[in-house]
Amino acid sequence: MRILTEIREAMGISLSALRANKLRSGLATLGIVIGIVTVTLMATAIQGLNKAFLKSISVLGTDVIYVQRFGWFIDSHAEWMKAAQRRPITPAQVKQLEKELSLARAVAPLSDSRASVKYKNRSASSVTVLGTTEQFAITTGTIVAEGRYFSAAEAAAGRPVCVIGWDVATNLFINETALGKQLKVGDASLEVVGVLEKQGALFGQSLDNQVVVPLMEFMSSFRSFPDVEIHIKAVSVEKLEEMKEEVRGALRRIRRVPPGVDDDFTINQQETLIETFNRVGGTIASVGIGITALSLFVGGIGIMNIMFVSVAERTREIGIRKAIGAKRRTILIQFLTEAAVICLFGGLLALSIAYPLTLVVRKFLPASMSLSIVGIALLVSLVTGVLSGFFPAWRAARMNPVDALRNE
Predict the structure, then answer these.
(1) Cα 340 to Cα 380: distance, rounded to the nearest angstrom
(2) Which contacts qualify for 153-159: CB closer than 8 Å, 24 or more apart?
(3) Which of 58, 150, 56, 57 is nearest to 108 (CA)?
(4) What's residue 162's pLDDT?
(5) On the CB side of 347, how many CA atoms lie within 13 Å of its CA?
(6) Percent of all residues in the chain with a pLDDT value above 90, rounded to a whole number
(7) Which of 187, 257, 349, 369 is most buried, with most CB under 10 Å away?
């Protein structure tokens, strides 16, 4: 209880000292303000980037793997050349793989191309055309907003049907339904059987500007010998790693990869992207922390300097307090509290500046100043104040009362 009383008294003395030296206290907090604004905006931006990234890749699915010739991240030209020399993955190999898997809920081959799409006098250029099977709807979790997805029978027979993305539907069909209409996709005429729900973009590429057709139709009209990638959805997230090994073993047999030879395919998954993003994000955060630490260090030096000046100006006051019985601890708490109050004031001022700036950041990223960020900012302010004020407070606490009273 005694120490709480001392802290309360120290708060009163500190606030009186700050009111008596407003300009000096304000200038002392400038470095702290810059540092806290930096750490607040950095934390807000990183939080926003994380949210945007996770939302973007959520379409990939945590229980889906992607088998391709190329890996999503290639570190060198030599590695790229090695991947480029791998044999294409064929639709026949995908069919054989599907028969051998026991832990897969769905297996969908996929190949893509670009084409112009026309309906009457309206057209769209550079639309992504995807050739796949009916199981693509399961591996991607896409939802059909209107109509239906093409069936397994239509996929197997290569029927001239298609499911179109939201943007394609809204751009080509104005005030009319797209269902049942004939689209000219490249040189092929395709019937629209469904319209996909709006999905947004993945890594800057729109998922709504696409036309999905049966793979057999794709091979007939767009690419006769496609190099397909394989989307494989596990029966559960818990079985994903086990399924990966099953896929690796089965595909090596199907592609006749000799024992001891590296895989001639790559298994990609969402976790790979997250790990890479976390590494990049960690580097960005480290740079930001370095800049923030430098700013706070400069601000802390300023606080320390002001506190040394404050101790020198109030030497006689310290002597009187010690002469009437104040302990070293009381003097130490008084000046530590004063330094902490100055820095907390700087932290609050910084938050009032940072908040409107986060509203600007929100226009580009799903960022917001959360309570955790506010708490971290105030905690950093408090710690900076305590560390900066410790040596001046220690010096004040160790003063000899006789020498202090002689000071003029």
Answers:
(1) 10
(2) 154/214, 155/214, 155/215, 155/216, 156/214, 156/216, 157/214, 157/216, 158/214, 158/215, 158/216, 158/217, 158/219, 158/220, 159/214, 159/217
(3) 150
(4) 93
(5) 22
(6) 18
(7) 369
Of the candidates 127, 110, 109, the one whose C-alpha atom is nearest the C-alpha of residue 190 is 127
Q: Nearest 5°: phi and psi at 236? A: -160, 160
In angstroms, the Cα distances linking 7 to 287, 300, 382 are 37, 22, 15
Six-digit token pair at 323? 């002469």
Question: Positive or negative, the Cα torsion across 45, 50, 55, 56?
Answer: positive
Burial of 355 from C-beta contacts in 10 A (0-12 / 13-18 / 19+): middle
Distance CA 175, CA 338 (A): 69
Taking only the tens place, the pLDDT of each residue in 60-80 is: 567 888 888 887 776 677 777
| Gap between the Cα atoms of 391 and 308, Å rounded | 8
Helices (H), 228-269: 240-254
Report which secondary-structure segment, H or E, holds 356.
Answer: helix 328-361
Residue 166: per-residue pLDDT:
92
Q: What is the 3-state secondary structure (H, E, C) of 58-89?
A: HHHCCCEEEEECCCCCCCCHHHHHHHHCCCCC
Amino acid at 244: K
Give residue-wise pLDDT tens across range 183-227.
Answer: 999 889 999 999 999 887 666 677 889 999 999 999 998 988 888
Distances (CA, A) of 315 to 167, 264, 295, 341, 399: 75, 78, 30, 20, 8
What span, in angstroms and rounded, lies between the C-alpha atoms of 55 and 282?
19
What is the C-alpha separation between 391 and 98, in angstroms, rounded?
71
| Cα→Cα distances 265→96, 203, 283, 291, 302, Å | 16, 23, 30, 42, 59
Centre a 10 Å sphere on the Cβ of residue 122 and count the other Cβ atoms it contains: 11
Can you tell me whether residue 395 is helix, strand or coil? helix
With a CB cutoff of 8 Å and minimum separation 6, the contacts of 92 are none
Place of tokens 């099953």: 246
Q: How far apart are CA 126 and CA 129, in angstroms?
A: 9
H-helix or E-strand spanning residue 345 = helix 328-361
Indicate if the pLDDT at residue 228 is higher than 80. yes
